[in-house]
Amino acid sequence: MSSPSIYLAVIGVGGVGTCFLSQVSSLPSRLRPTLIFLSRSSKQLYNTSYSPVSPSDLQSSTSKLLSIPDELVTYLSSAPGKVILVDNTSSQDVANAYPSFLKKGISVVTPNKKAFSGSLQLWNDIFSAVEQANGKAMVYHESSVGAGLPVISTLKDLVATGDQVTRIEGVFSGTMSFLFNSFAPVDGTGNGKWSEIVKQAKEAGYTEPDPRDDLNGMDVARKLTILARLAGLKVQGPDSFPVQSLIPKELESAKSSEDFMAQLPKFDEQMESYKSQAAAQNKVVRYVGSVDVGKGEVKVGLEMVEKGSPIAGLKGSDNLICFYTKRYGANPLVIQGAGAGGEVTAMGVTADLIKVVERLG
Amino acid sequence: MSSPSIYLAVIGVGGVGTCFLSQVSSLPSRLRPTLIFLSRSSKQLYNTSYSPVSPSDLQSSTSKLLSIPDELVTYLSSAPGKVILVDNTSSQDVANAYPSFLKKGISVVTPNKKAFSGSLQLWNDIFSAVEQANGKAMVYHESSVGAGLPVISTLKDLVATGDQVTRIEGVFSGTMSFLFNSFAPVDGTGNGKWSEIVKQAKEAGYTEPDPRDDLNGMDVARKLTILARLAGLKVQGPDSFPVQSLIPKELESAKSSEDFMAQLPKFDEQMESYKSQAAAQNKVVRYVGSVDVGKGEVKVGLEMVEKGSPIAGLKGSDNLICFYTKRYGANPLVIQGAGAGGEVTAMGVTADLIKVVERLG
Predict the structure, then answer these.
(1) Closest of B56, B8, B57 to residue B32, by C-alpha
(2) Which of A123, A211, A268, B229 is the most exposed place for a label (fewest CB within 10 A)?
(3) Kind and range of the H or E element at A65?
(4) How far is CA A46 from the centre of its chain?
């Protein structure tokens, strides 16, 4: 069966969504499902005859908005074929609706971390819906950790084939990677004070519009939650384990991003002290996440790492993920590369889409 | 549909095959196909009613030997369900038969490099059979490069989603990695003369029984052939591009492995000279394979690499594979870890088996 009988619904046409639609349009027809629903903020594009829609018509669409999930589930589950929903948002509301889609046989592909790092109840609801669907509906979320890097698929393969994952460790944020590779490079130099580096990174677009959304560590905590759960730990959520925020306590009440940035230089000394403590031990300071599967411990925060270690040697805004397992022994399986960006995130989504099409086809 | 209606035939029960059978026996029943054929050298185990066979009965089996491929294809294509053939040998003959199996709707999963690094004709025959099968028979071969490391799947995802792979580079042999990490570590020391290190590696089981099978570079050349073809190059075979053998010309006629090892110390000076040439440039010597996709160039041999580079910093017998692509830009997507060993090779095979079961199920 070729893919024209498989239907595609896409929510979200921001940076990742735009790259994704472009990548999908270049797939060979046997792997390219028929786009029947597309939405962004307050616009939706679809028709009741399930004929293909074109992304270029979204802006001018006057379609009545379907409620998500109820009306969208109803619309998609009446499609004359199997349906894949791609959620390119970072919305918790859309994530909460995955079980409703899956229960109706609609597969889900997404880079959205919220579904897998939210409540353990939602996680359980999603994966029990997948199990009950018995191969008719599935969920793929490679890009929820490390963008297109093969992180989720590798961890799943390790677990599924019976390896024992003992420890997962790495740098899981492109922003944190960039900040620390600039602030405390291995050669002992540095590109300035901490607050200056944060400022430069913000101006260069390496941080979220409000850098506090990176510095609070929650993005990394969400990724660790996902990996820890895949490795078998029943983690309640990203706030159920120690996460070191790099927002100084005194600045937690800063009213705006600007206010925060203006006051940040007052705390440069504190970061400088971490840097020199590390240097005194011939180490460098990095923002590291780790899961100790045996002890059931997850943590995120600053660590002093050996100068010769792969984490210390990272370049630019690269991520690095080490899987220590029984089979791999002392030397971990390591995956490294860009862990953010529209094209590489979309690549993980498109590759997942292909896998679902191949399984449904 | 659950997997008891999917059937499994396994050829080869050596190191990898034994680990594979053990891993498969631990899979949940929905992912575990029914074993109906098992063979090693001059023994085969099967029955005409296609009822399950048990690996422990192989040694005492008195089944009439089926010819491969003809009689085995006939036997398997009459099974009352879909069939997956797992080839855990390194046999060229078995590899040559893949198109015959695929044409009859029998999927193939294998770590055997021979099918994908042999003649371009065989490669084309295999992949045109897969295309004609239109999703009913497929071929997966993750462990043909880097054992269980996600090398093949990552490269396929990059290509399938439309990225442009510009360069592939790395250390593709656990043996070569071990030899050079011992001979010329980054700290400038070393564990002795080249011939002594080869001898120690042989005694520790890090080389093939005859170390010349590693030192001739053909294993690496085969892996590069596979990667280059997946990246789109029409490579004729592993002898169609420059491969530097580390067997000195004068020793090519050595009559035996023992004879070779006895004479190797005469050439220590040559390797020592490479080492000091590299050191003079603040580099180290490594055995590297690379594919330049744009130029259509593949090569394998000694290279002087920067001390700070990931290749120079490898430990033990780890492999390292860098994918440079348009989307990943200046910093490659890197995969690193053990690239040989029974359990990790079998893991790649088992993970592939699961994917095929999921697609057929």
Answers:
(1) B8
(2) A268
(3) none
(4) 28
pLDDT at position A3, please? 57
Q: Which of B131, B157, B324 to mutate to test the interface with A (most CBs of A within 10 A)?
A: B157
pLDDT tens-digit profile of B71-114?
999 999 999 999 999 999 999 999 999 999 999 999 999 999 99
Q: Could you give the CA distance from residue B2 to residue A360 in angstroms, rounded to a whole number?
A: 15
CA B79 to centroid of chain Cα atoms: 29
Q: How many helices (H) and strands (E) does chain B have?
A: 14, 11
Q: Which of residues 122-161 of A touch B (CB under 8 A)?
A: 134-135, 148-150, 153-154, 157-158, 160-161
Size of interface A-B (CB pairs under 8 A): 128
Interface of A with B in 294-333 (CB under 8 A): 308, 310, 313, 315-316, 318, 327-333
Q: From the CA of B312, how many Å to the nearest CA of chain A?
A: 11
**B208 marked ligand binding residue:** yes
Higher pLDDT, B204 or B24: B24
CB environment B12-43: b (16+ within 10 A), e (fewer): bbeebbbbbbebbeebeeebbbbbbbbbbeeb
* Domains of chain B as residue ranges with CATH: 6-148+343-360 (3.40.50.720), 151-338 (3.30.360.10)
From the list B31, B161, B332, the residue facing A350 with the nearest CB is B161
Report whether B38 contacts B46 (CB < 8 A): yes
A111 touches chain B (CB under 8 A): no
ipTM here: 0.96
**Tens digit of pLDDT for each residue in B37-72?**
999 988 999 999 999 999 999 999 999 999 999 999
> Does the distance separating the beta carbons of B1 and A350 come in below 8 Å?
no
Widest CA span of chain B, in angstroms?
Answer: 69
Task: Return the closest-CA partner of residue B229 out of B338, B118, B316.
Answer: B118
pLDDT band (50, 70, 90) for residue B306: very high
Rounded to a whole number, what is the distance in Å from the CA of A137 to chain B's nearest CA?
12
Q: Kindly give the residue spans of alpha helices, DSSP state H, lying in A26-134.
A: 70-77, 92-96, 98-103, 114-117, 120-133
Is position A192 annotated in a ligand binding site? no
pLDDT (tens digit per residue) in B147-194: 999 999 999 999 999 999 999 999 999 999 999 999 999 988 887 999
Residues of chain A short of pLDDT 50, as ranges, are 1-2
Contact A28, B160 (CB under 8 A): no
Record the pTM. 0.96
CA separation for the pair A122, B146 (Å, rounded): 37
